[in-house]
Structure formats: C-alpha cells, structure tokens
Amino acid sequence: xxRVSLSLITHRFFxxxxxxxxxxxxxxxxxxxxxxxxxSGIPGLWSQFLQRVSNSREAQEISSxxxxxxxxxxxxxxxxxxxxxxxxxxxxxxLSNLFLFLFLLELNGFVNSLALPEVAxxxxxxxxxxxxxxxxxxxxxxxLSCFLTLLALKAANDHRWLVSGxxxxxxxxxxxxxxxxxxxxxxxxxxxxxxxxxxxLYKRLxxxxxxxxxxxxxxxxxxxxxxxxxxxxxxFNLLNVFHLKTGLSWALSTSFLGQTLALLVLxxxxxxxxxxxxxxxxxxxxxxxxxxxxxxTPYTELATSTLLVAPAFTGLAEACAPSLLKxxxxxxxxxxxIEVFNIFS
Length: 345
Fold this sequence. Notes:
Blueprint: H1 2-30, H2 41-54, H3 57-63, H4 72-84, H5 88-112, H6 117-129, H7 142-157, H8 161-172, H9 177-191, H10 198-218, H11 220-223, H12 226-231, H13 234-243, H14 257-276, H15 280-296, H16 302-305, H17 313-319, H18 322-344
C-alpha cells in the first residue's frame, strides 16, 4: 500500500502545481501589464484555488443552513462546519481526500482477493491516474460514493455483512447503482451459504436487506423516478443505436468522446477480467459492475463515474505487459493534467 500512497501524494501534488500554473497564466492574460511576481505569489494563487473550490456544490451546501441534501458527504461536512467553523472549502478538500485514500485502501484489499498483489497496486495506480480522478480530490462527494462501493463489496467478500449492508445503504442514499449492486451481493451471500448454517444465512440477509429497504423508504422521492433514470441511462442510449439505427457518430463527437473512451476502457477491462481471473464469480464481477453503471448513469457522466466500478481496471492491470501498462498510465497522466489545466485556466 505504500506504493499506492506515494503515487497518490506525488500525483496530487503534480495536479496542484498544474492547477496553480493555470490560475497564474490566466492572471497574466487578464492583466498582461502585471509582472509574474505581482500575481500575488503562491499565497495569492492558493487563495484563488480555494475560491474555485468554494464555488462547488458541496462547499455551498455545507455552509448553507437551509441545505436539505441527503448526501452523507454533505451531512459529515455540515456537522464539522457547525462545530469547528473551518472554512467549507477546506472541509470538502480534507473529506474528499480522506475518502479517496480509504477508497484506494479498500480497492487494494479487494483486488488482492481477486489477483496478485502487483495487480492490485497497478489497479490502484490506474484509478489514481484516471482522467477525471482529480474530481475526487477537489471536494466531490463522489469520493465517498467510490469508497462505499468498494467497502460494500470487500466487506461482503470478508463475510462482514452488517458493514456491507450499511455501506450499501449509505451509497444508495444518493447513487442508484447501489440498488443494482444488490443482486451481486446476494449472489456472493448465497455462494457463502455452504460455509454457514441456515440461521446464519437469515441473519446476514437481514443485515443486507433491512438497511437498503429503509433507505428506499426514506428516499422514496428519489427512487420513485427510477424508471425515468434508467430510461435516460447510457445503456438505453446505446440500445437505441440498434433499435433506431441512429449510428454511433454522436458517441465520437467532441462532446461525448471522453465518455466513449471511458466506456471502451471499462469494457476492455471487464472482458479481459472474464478470461484472466480465477473463479466464475470473480470473472463476472467487473462485467456486472459495468452493467450496473451503464443502467444507472447518463452517458454524459460515464467518465466522471468510472471509478465507481474501478475493479474493471483489474483485467487491464492483469493482462497488459509492463511496458504497455506504463504507456496507458502515461496517457492517463497527460490527459488528466490537460483536463485540470483547462478547468482552472
């Protein structure tokens, strides 16, 4: 895990430098008569960086007493803000990076149960370098969702069904994918049945089903729109290509190219995983996770939501030669840095 931690720190420091450089150059363009040191130096750049973060939805809702968000990330942030009065942008930065680290910790442990430790490390590195992974460090509540997804899976794998049920319930407060992960977790539970008594099975079913049932009841305003959300998902966008014979030219347009790239990477990793992992359940797991993502996510959000199904990277990490894997990671690094520069410029 030390390699993953070191890579995360190094990569995030690099992206921070890129973001500050973008803000600096933007300042020079807006005020060409001001010399470089006059753009307020590092403290001024850092202040402008924090200002950008403070404009995020998470920071706004954490500082708003009228916020009615059901997002657990906002709940944790608001609780800290009320009792500490720390600036909301600092809170979202700390929380998002904390949950990002916990996500990588769970991802490393989970992939270790599917493949060799080197594969687990490479899977984590691909997640760190993914083109939109910077969002998980900038205050996005997606970092908590990614952590809860992996926690639910790994806890189920480790027979910790109460933890798995609670994690799935918290995920389902804001992410429809939590509901579609339930069949996968039930299959894992039934696969463990031969090692436990019938009473133990019933108890684990209660641990898993009661929390998510409570969430569906509590968030019925969200779940009653499930048919509409599914119909607007990436899965149905792709299905309409064959049904309406519209062609795939739209998927290769500038607006959707990033989403299509994300889909191709995830699809390649899932297919390769089916042939290289050991047990049938492990082989099917990335495919099921990818299908759950496609059914619950609009096509326009695929690239952003990719890390919700980060285990799909396992196939690429397992099958690619070291030189090819380094090349993929370098491409991720370059395009991720370009994305950050464009956002802050």
